[in-house]
Amino acid sequence: MDNSESKDIPSDLKILKAAEEIFAEEGFDGARVDDIAKRAGVNKALIYYYFESKEQILEELSKNHLKEILEAKENILKDFSFEHGLNHAAIEKMLQTIIWGTLGNNKDFLSIVLIEALKNKSGDTSFFKLINQMYDNSIARIEKMGYKIESDKFKTTALFFGILPIIFYIVISDKWAEYNHIDKDAVKSAFIEAITEMELSLLINKFDFFQDKKVIDSFRQDNLSLLLDEKTPE
Predict the structure, then answer these.
(1) What pLDDT is attached to residue 26?
(2) What global pTM score does this model have?
(3) I need a labelling partner for 212 at 20 to 30 A (CA). Which of 45, 49, 166, 174 fits?
(4) How far is CA 209 from CA 78, 82, 166, 204, 213, in A?
């Protein structure tokens, strides 16, 4: 970012951007306000003018990213019809665009809130808010399609066998590939194959969303065709 671009960005947004980078690099506990001020190019007093504490900075970051993720999801789905059920095209588009795009574009934020969620003493609930809001929205759409669904069971199953593996992949896949000297595309291919089969199995066996065997067979045969052409988010 050059100086002219930096001058056009409001100070509070520069602080939030810098804080997100520092939180991702050093961890929330290890991040220092002095370092955030230096990265943002502002003095420390200005940070405290906008935010009372690091916790408030993280809360504001969480609000912004929650809004961004949910708006992106809505923009993807608003013109997308589910009238014929969760068919092959619907699943494929959701996997490609929502997972690899919407979530992948928020890698640093996901890393920060996931680490906070893993801490026993952390009171931050941003990760759980994100998951609940994403799934509440999905459940409402599914119910409009005429399917009856147990909300708590669906969200719990989808968290531990759906979105959590995906988030872990987004956050650590590059490091995993580097550590094991595995080609990143090979890691991606293996993950996509596994996660799509898992999602398909859950949808069919647990929640019985698919009624047409032709749709099931079609999904099994070519569910990787376009996904494998997608770029892994940086």
Answers:
(1) 92
(2) 0.74
(3) 166
(4) 20, 12, 21, 6, 11
Structural contact between residues 97 and 76, judged by C-beta atoms closer than 8 angstroms: yes
pLDDT higher at 217 or 11: 11
Q: Which two tokens stand for residue 232?
A: 């892994």
CA–CA separation, 19 vs 40, rounded Å? 8
SS3 87: coil
Alpha helices (runs of H) in 27-163, residue ranges in sequence order: 33-40, 44-50, 54-77, 88-93, 107-118, 126-144, 151-158
Distance CA 98, CA 68 (A): 12
CATH 3.40.50.620 fits 1-51, yes or no: no
Domains of the chain, by residue range, sit at 1-51, 59-229
Residue 71, classed as helix, strand or coil, is: helix
pLDDT at 180 over 80: yes
In angstroms, rounded to a whole number, what is the distance separating the alpha carbons of residues 183 and 178? 8
pLDDT digits (tens, 9 = 90+) for 121-153: 778 888 898 888 888 877 887 777 677 778 888
Residue 225, judged by CB atoms within 10 A of its CB (0-12, 13-18, 19+), counts as exposed
State the Cα–Cα distance between residues 232 and 227, nearest whole angstrom.
10
Q: Which helix (H) or strand (E) holds 21?
A: helix 11-26
Given the structure tokens 């959701």, which residue do they identify? 94
